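Morning - N-(aminocarbonyl)-beta-alanine inputs below, output right after.
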Amino acid sequence: MPEFDLAVRGGTVVTATDTLRADIGIRAGRIVAVAEAITDASRTIDAGGLLVLPGGIDSHVHIAQASGPGIVMADDFASATRAAAAGGNTCVMPFALQPRGASLREATHAYRALAEGQCHIDVAIHLIVSDPTPAVLGQELPGLIAEGYTSFKVFMTYDDLVLNDRQILDVFDLARREGARVMVHAEGYDAIRYMTDKLERAGQTGPYGHALSRPQLVEREAAHRAISHAELVDLPIVIVHVSGAEAMEQIAWARSRGLDIRAETCPQYLTLTADHMKGLGSDDPMAGAKYVCSPPPRDVANQAAIWRGLQTGLFDVVSSDHCPFRYDDPAGKLNPKGKTSFRWVPNGIPGIETRLPVLFSEGVSAGRISLNRFVELTSTNHAKLYGLYPRKGSIGPGFDADLTLWDPNRRETIRQEHLHHGADYTPWEGFAVTGWPVMTIARGEVIAQDGRVTGAVGHGRVLDRTVEPAARRR
Ligand code: URP
Ligand code: ZN
Ligand code: ZN
């Protein structure tokens, strides 16, 4: 009987710290050896000329999430994880959302039931706390954290999700006691409402109004407030989907005070601008809705600032914030109310399959970031931030055999017709990239190859996580 089930041979193995020519030996879905030569295997994959990366981990995606009356998210677990696998990912982290007035525990268990048996790759579920009642803070949330849902997101905007400052402080306090990781959507609710009303009164109701309604100062103010609350409670937090220089300044300022503030950005803030919401070059007045997401993409100067943040270490992770709605659909971007005002255009864009190629091409191929930094930003740090390390996020004995074989020289043009998500468009249509995932291996099985998803739905598991005892500060 051969020693290994699978050997990946002849590739260049890249981790967050090292780049080396090595073979990888896999047994029972785990990496058991990284060595100069591994020969005794039932099956061999030739990775000659390819990079062997830890599978991408996308720690911020929205899948099958309730999105308001008449609006339907374009992906279920099968389609989202299929697209993620084709794009070189082996684990994604969506959100179980607590509808206001409802039980967080029930919502989480119902959401998990949607995922079980329906995933191509592994999934670890964050929570969204929209209604921190005494029962939620006292029993439900501590219980769910103990069950393995060790991270949650809070929102400083959106009618159905916004928490006031006292609620944020109470939730932070609970997270500190239980050792949970908190993600913060930092945009100020009242400022956005003020701007939205004003723009509508002035007749600026098209998709570009979305960008005008959420200027950077709205994000900067909320980031500052979240940081101040985190300082008061003494809680490390993650500020997610940072879009530009002003929020970055707040994060740098917080760190200069010794605060443990982590930061996430997304490909849209590196490659798109607010001008995309003007729909230029299209006769369709709603075309800009394809780019409506929050915070909105900014301008090229802010793109440059975000790149600097990736280079200097300000950012810990790059996620997709995949939040897919179909465009040409009354349950999506072109819902009847959305045509009357940007206020009703569902926020979010698809990006689960394009995150890695866009960041690799614009980052590594363009010489802005190193290969090791790419791995850190797209896999290792996600695992470390959210309690999946050392199960996932690197290549070495004991890690899950989650690997992406990457051709750094392959040139492709991103086209909707080639993608696997449930949306009917991609914001990166026609975007040329250098560097492409050619094979995805999840827990030792080849699940995607050359744009075809070959793995079975159901191969992916829903993962539970644990809180380090030292993280609890009661
Ligand atoms: O526009 C966005 N980003 N929609 C997704 C929800 C969120 O705030 O992350
Ligand atoms: Zn958000
Ligand atoms: Zn999001």
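Note: The chain has a mean pLDDT of 98.

O.
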